[in-house]
Amino acid sequence: MLTGLLLMATLSAPALGNPYDDAPSLIPAHSTEDPFSWELSSVALQPGQPGRITATLIVPPGTHVYRDQLEVSVANPDGLRIGKPDFPPGLTAPDPANKAMTRELYERDVIIYLPVNVPKKTEAVSAYVQLQLRHQGCREGLCFPPSDTMSHVLIPIRTTEAP
């Protein structure tokens, strides 16, 4: 009976120390919760004026995201013309699963721009653009489950009065 209690206490005791002590990480080594997050922003636009939506993936220290596991798409443009996302160049590194291949990755926040244009003939005072945001981030030895988020950004539209 005492052996069973000691075994149970040993199995339920928290692990001491972090096996990744040398890695600059704020994420506990045992955590499997996705630490990445998205921020969206835009500026007010006038009809016919080009602008952009900014989608930023926050990449915590000690983690990374592969470019081929990152996607931003427009689910509902709400009457606006929205172009293809513009991704920044990433780092090229050997693929851990196949050292003969390389993959593009980001170890810092990723700022993605989507060009936007408000039609010249619009009476809208704002647009509520719906974006689909997908990513799968990793840290040393572990990739988090893929994340698929639907988010919105409000774009104010400044209408100009005719003289």
Question: Which terms would index this structure?
Answer:
single chain; 163 residues; mainly beta; Immunoglobulin-like; six-stranded antiparallel sheet; four-stranded antiparallel sheet; 1 helix; 48% strand; elongated
Give a structural overview.
The protein is mainly beta and 163 residues long. It has one domain (35-156): Thiol:disulfide interchange protein DsbD, N-terminal domain (Immunoglobulin-like, Sandwich). 7% of the residues lie in helices and 48% in strands. The chain has one helix and ten strands, in the order H-E-E-E-E-E-E-E-E-E-E. The protein has one helix at 2-12; strands at residues 37-42, 50-58, 63-76, 81-82, 91-95, 98-106, 110-117, 126-139, 142-143, 147-156. Strands 3, 5, 6, 8, 9 and 10 form a six-stranded antiparallel β-sheet that branches. The protein has a four-stranded antiparallel β-sheet with strand order 1-2-7-4, with no helix packed on it. Strand 5 (91-95) and strand 6 (98-106) form a beta hairpin. The longest helix has 11 residues, at 2-12. The chain is elongated and about 55 Å long. The model is unreliable at 1-30 (pLDDT under 50).
